Amino acid sequence: MADITITVPISDVFREVSRRSVIISSTDVYYANKTVEERQNSQLQGEGDRITTDFTKEAAKEILKTYIPVQGDVSGLAFEYDLASSGNIVYRFSENDDPLSTNHTSAITTRLTDNTKDAMIYFILTSLYRSDGNVNKEQEMLIKYNDLLDVLSGDIYRLHS
Fold this sequence. Notes:
Largest sheet: 3 strands, antiparallel
Structural class: mainly alpha
Distance between the termini: 12 Å
Number of helices: 5
Number of strands: 3
């Protein structure tokens, strides 16, 4: 029974939310009548931006709730958020007693990594648009976030049960 490790580089999350928030604040109708300063306040800048860092920590902890049920027998740290040292967010859980084939496990682990990162991005954007008062974008991002949590739960179940 081996541990499955899902690693999400924080810099990748920062880069993606920065890019998406800039695009949306430039193209979404909610921001059409906003000043340049108001639009810039709706753009997450990533590294060094305290708001982005706070939203990222919150997102990592929210997504951890999906992993917690399968982390009880992990050998080592089950969760890491280490901005200064490794720059990664790491989730670990143990594989089931009867492991899947290596290729199957690898494919699911890759999908878990991608979907965990995307869920994190959608949660951060949901938080941003909630604080902006952009209800339509908030709901759109929240739906995508919740859909990804369902997919994550299914993939975790496939590897752990």
